[in-house]
Amino acid sequence: MHMETILHKASSRGFFDHGWLRTYHTFSFADYRNPERVSFGALRVLNDDTIAPETGFGLHPHHNMEIVSMPLRGALEHRDNMGNRTVIRAGELQVMSAGKGVLHSEYNESATETAEFLQIWVIPDRPNVTPRYENGNISHLIRPNEISVIVSPFDSHTGGLWIYQQAWFSVADMDTDVSLEYVLRSEKSYGVYAFVLEGNVNAAGVELDRRDGLGITDTARFDLRANGKSRVLLIEVPPYEI
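Now predict its structure.
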């Protein structure tokens, strides 16, 4: 087995400024079409969104997708046709299994502050489930200088939130010069997508800056070293052919 990596520099992502929404797309999404960036295994979408005050996404449909929303700054109000109405903030996480179909909206109610969040889609391991919604505080799960799981599969739930897929979301919150080893949780995994939320790290021998992404495949483990105080999101997913 020979480890392979694919680097997505932050500046190479698809970018659109809609006025109310500034959005970066790591993978093909909406008007951003890149045949070399359709997915990473079952990881289908990784959008880095900034929503202007008092604006947001109106009611819209989803189906057969696991949708994870990770606020980074500000607050988002979520509403859906299952009767949920919640506000999520940095330090919290939202998971929605769209399954047979769901309608939802996301809105920044603040009159002064932008809302920043990651919208991540993972293709589920089963179709047409009953739609579900869950949110929770994850700040207590993230331990300094460790790889902390925040999302895990339905059938091997290890704390945090869960999705209908053999996928694990982890956060590495690292001080300068700290080194960690990521050991893949399943021998059936396609690989791990590392996305730098803040700071600068070396992942699997590749230097990564803020908002750079790196797909890491064909290995059972890899090293992660912080060149400065850093926070990295790590998404381990199974293979999936689009």
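The chain has two domains: 14-139, 143-237.
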